[in-house]
Amino acid sequence: MPSIVPTGGILGADVEGLDLAQPLADADFALLLQALGQHGVLRIPRQRIGARALRDFSLRFGPIQTGVADRFRDPEVPEVGILSNIRRDGAPIGLADAGQDWHTDMTYTATRGFVNVLHAVEVPMRDGRPLGDTLFANMHAAYDDLPAEVQQRLDGMTATHDFNIFWERMRTRPGSSRPPLTAAQRAARPPAVHPVFLRHPITGRRVLYCNPGYAERINELDAAESARILEFLFAHQLQPKYQHAHRWSVGDVLIWDHLGTLHNAIPDYGPDEHRLMLRCQVMAERIFDPAFQQLWLKAA
């Protein structure tokens, strides 16, 4: 049975005693899910796995998203994306993921994202220190600390989230290798609407499910009031007291909960300081299914 070692901070725990190159027992998977709800970010260190093993592990959480930036996927395992600043023959081998500011993946789709599973293959170093930390913010705590009148006023309200606005913001930044979305890609990612407050399927508690990367409008408010409230929510949820920094090591497999956290990859490394990550983006189709929840609850 693996052991869960919390960081002692607002988020995060290490998971010891797992080899992800081997099939995961149901009881171990149930423990991971419970720990993910409680800690938001789980690090499984010292893993030596390839793209197939990463895919097979990630599929335990649900279906894996594909379709955007297909040229930056493993040629033999297309469910696995490549995030990297490495170039070969003058062309990028992966999608640059750092410097995106605070966001939550997949809020721009009707089916929400559930977890990101990221495996560190190369980590940039300088003066003996790893670069490219990933920051996280706790949206359980952010909701709990909202003034009661804000919780009551926004209860039941929804926000529109738009992928293309975020993509264009990132694409036009200096050094970005992102191409514009094609018309087909834009049509495949129309704006999506989600509750501002979401009940987390693992913890049963409310989270603030509204992020500065994709949330464009609170639909039940006029434009000016929506802008004012969003500005307040974004400032509130990014207070340092809600934040946790993950410092990468080669071999880390990091799992984080999109429903209960925001994240931000720090671009503090240069083009010659190589970073290479393999990623599976898992959608929240299975975790909201009561039958699936019973499977892991019974296994716990």
UniProtKB/TrEMBL annotation:
GO molecular function: dioxygenase activity
SUPFAM superfamilies linked to this entry: Clavaminate synthase-like (SSF51197)
Entry keywords, A to Z: Dioxygenase, Iron, Metal-binding, Oxidoreductase
Pfam families: TauD
The keyword Nuclease belongs to this UniProt entry's keyword annotation: no
Taxonomy, superkingdom: Bacteria
Residues annotated as domain TauD/TfdA-like: 10-280
InterPro entries in the cross-refs: AtsK-like, TauD-like_sf, TauD/TfdA-like
Keyword presence, Ribonucleoprotein: no
Family the entry assigns: Belongs to the TfdA dioxygenase family.
Protein name: TauD/TfdA family dioxygenase
Source species: Paeniroseomonas aquatica
Species lineage: Bacteria, Pseudomonadati, Pseudomonadota, Alphaproteobacteria, Acetobacterales
